[in-house]
Amino acid sequence: MKKSMWTIVILIFLSIHSFGVSRIEVKDVWVREVPPASSVTAVYMVIENKGNEDDRLIEVKTDVSNNAVIHNTLVDEKGIAKMEKFEYINIPSGKSVELKPSGSHIMLIGLNKSLKAGDKIELDLKFEKFGIIKARAQVKGMQSH
Ligand SMILES: [Cu+2]
Known about the structure:
The chain is mostly beta strands. About 10% of the residues lie in helices and about 50% in strands. A hairpin with a 5-residue loop joins strand 4 and strand 5. The chain starts with a helix and ends in a 5-residue tail after the last strand. The model has no long low-confidence stretch (mean pLDDT about 90). The chain binds copper (II) ion. Copper (II) ion (CU) binds next to strand 8.
């Protein structure tokens, strides 16, 4: 085989065996306004993985609270909703995952400022493979859903 032929063979091989990629996009990020006396609130968003490899949201950081944890809402046998801490949220390849009221969300614990509708806050969202995405969340009124 000619040298150029080998180059084509190698290129085809590389494209078939290319490494998986996670391509994360975050949109519709919002956080619920809370009364000044409250020190906790929740952040919601849509996370889309346009890559060909699964990923996970593993960590969230923000300046407006001491702590940010991943929560899921579970309904127990008495029909009472409870929130449970999760270590991560799976974001499968080719799928959109919605963090929404009554579902999974990011809980901000120990707010160090009051959040008023119309304000914006900054968040660092860390994904296992894709890395960190900086997101801006809009504060929405208490009745938003
Ligand atoms: Cu929660």
